Amino acid sequence: MIRCQKCGENDHPAEAIYCHMCGTKLSLETVERPKEYIGQDFEWAESFSGGLAWVVINGAAGFIDKKGQIAIKPMYDYEGNYSFGVEAVHGFSGGLAAVRIGGSNMGKYGYIDRFGEYVIHPMFDCAWAFSDGMAPIRIKGKWGFIDKKGNIVCQPVYDFANRFSDGLASVKLYNDNWVYVDKTGSVKIDRTKNVIFSMNEGFPLRRPGFTFAQPFSDGWARVECAEKLGYIDKTGKFFKIDHKSIDDFSGGLASFSDDYNKSGYIDKTLKVVIKPKFEGAGKFYEGRAAVRSGNKWGYINMVGSLVIRYQFDEVAPFHEGMAAVKINGKIGYINSSGIMVIPPRFTSARGFSEGLATVEENGRWRFIDKAGNYAF
After folding, report:
1. Percentage of the chain exceeding pLDDT 70
2. How confident is the model over 87-113, as pLDDT tens digits?
3. How far apart are CA 236 and CA 49, in angstroms?
4. Global pTM?
5. Reduced to 3 states, what is the DSSP secondary structure of residue 171?
C-alpha cells in the first residue's frame, strides 16, 4: 500500500497515481497540472455526440468539432441546468439536433443537420432529441411525434409524451391514463381495455389504467397501476412488484428498495439476486453500479460484490471506463478499478463521451482527455 504524503491516507493499491481522499499525487512531488490550456473555454459545454459538442459562447449556443474549432456558428438560444451525475440533453441524435431561436417565451424549436442547415424549420413550442427515429414535439400545449423529415406522424393530442424505445412510446391521455403507442399513433398497450367480471358488482369492470409509465429499457417498462408498482413486457403483461420503489432495468438487473429503505437488485424473473443492504443504489453501467453505505458511495459488480470501496461523497455512472466522483466538494475521475486517474479539482463535470469529458474549472467549461489534459 502507498501512503499519501499530504493527508496520510494509506489504503492505496500499488498502481494508484493519486490519493482517493485528497487528490494529491502519490509521490514527494506536488500535484501535476495539465498542459497549458491554449484553446477556447466556454460558458457552458455538453458532451460530444457524432463528433460535435454543444457549447455556449457570449450567450449563444453552437457546436464545436473535436479540434475545438467552431463547426456550427453560435446563434441559438441557450438553456441548461447542471446536476452532478446527470448527463446533458443537447446534441446530435440520429444525425439531427434540436435547437431554439426567438427567446424562452416566444421561441420555436427546429432541427439542424451537422452542417447547421435546417432539416426541420423552427415551428414547435418544445422539441426533444430523436430516439428510435422519432422525436416528441409540443404544439399549443399538446404533445405528439414527428419523423426525421418533420412529418407529424402522431398528432399532438397528448398531455405528455416520452421518447420512443423498442418501437413504443408511453403517452399521457386527457384522463390521466397512460398508454403505449406505436409509430403510427395506434394504441398498443392500454390496460383499461382489459375487462374483468366482478361478482360483487354484477357487471364487467374496466381494469385501472397506468398512472405512471416509463419508456422501455432492457425490454421492460416500469409502470404504476392502482398504486401498485411493476413492469410490463412488450405484450403489455403486468408484473406486480411488492417493493416500496423500483428502478428501470439495465444490464438485466433493476434496483429496488424495501420497507426498511434498504436497496437491492432483482433480475427479470423478479427474483432478488442482490440482497437489500444498501442505503442507495443506482443503475448498472459497464458492469458497475453505484451503491451507498451511510453517507459514502462505492461501486459493486453484477454479483453484488463491492469492487470499489465506500469513499466518495457523490458518484456518477461509468462511461468509457471512467466515472466522475466527488470528494470534499471537488470532482475527479476514477477508472473501473477505483484508481483515481484524474485528481479532484473540478466544480462540475460530465461523463466521458468519444474520448473527452466536459468539466468546469474556475467558472469556465473546458474539455479534457482521459489523462486529465485539456483537449485543445
Report:
1. 89
2. 878 899 999 999 999 987 789 999 999
3. 33
4. 0.85
5. strand
The torsion region of residue 318 among left (phi > 0), alpha (psi -120 to 50) and beta comes to beta
27-85 confidence digits (pLDDT tens): 533 344 455 455 678 999 999 999 999 999 999 999 999 999 999 999 999 887 888 88
> 368: exposed, middle or buried (C-beta count within 10 Å: 0-12, 13-18, 19+)?
buried
CATH number of the structural domain 246-312:
2.40.10
Contact 157, 142 (CB under 8 A): yes
Residue pair 349/360 in contact (Cβ under 8 Å)? The answer is: yes
Q: Are 372 and 330 in contact (CB under 8 A)?
A: no
C-beta separation of 353 from 317 below 8 A: no
Cell numbers 429499457: residue: 217
**Smallest Cα–Cα separation from 288: which of 315, 263, 248, 268?**
315
Q: Tell me how far CA of residue 324 lies from CA of 48, 75, 146, 240, 309, in angstroms.
A: 16, 31, 35, 35, 15
| Secondary structure (3-state) at 61 | strand
Enumerate the β-bridge partners of residue 354. Answer: none
Residue 307: name the closest of 289, 332, 329 by CA. Answer: 289
pLDDT for 32 equals 46
Q: Indicate the pLDDT class of residue 208, thresholds 50, 70 and 90.
A: confident
Residues in the chain: 376
Q: What is the DSSP letter of 265?
A: E
Question: For the chain, which residues make up each domain, given as ranges?
Answer: 246-312
Question: Residue written as cell 434498504?
Answer: 262
Which residues share a beta bridge with 146? Answer: 135, 152
Q: Which helix (H) or strand (E) holds 148?
A: none
pLDDT tens-digit profile of 122-159? 999 999 999 999 999 999 999 999 999 999 999 999 99
- Could you tell me the three cell numbers for 200? 360483487
CA dihedral 47, 81, 149, 160 (to 10 degrees): 140
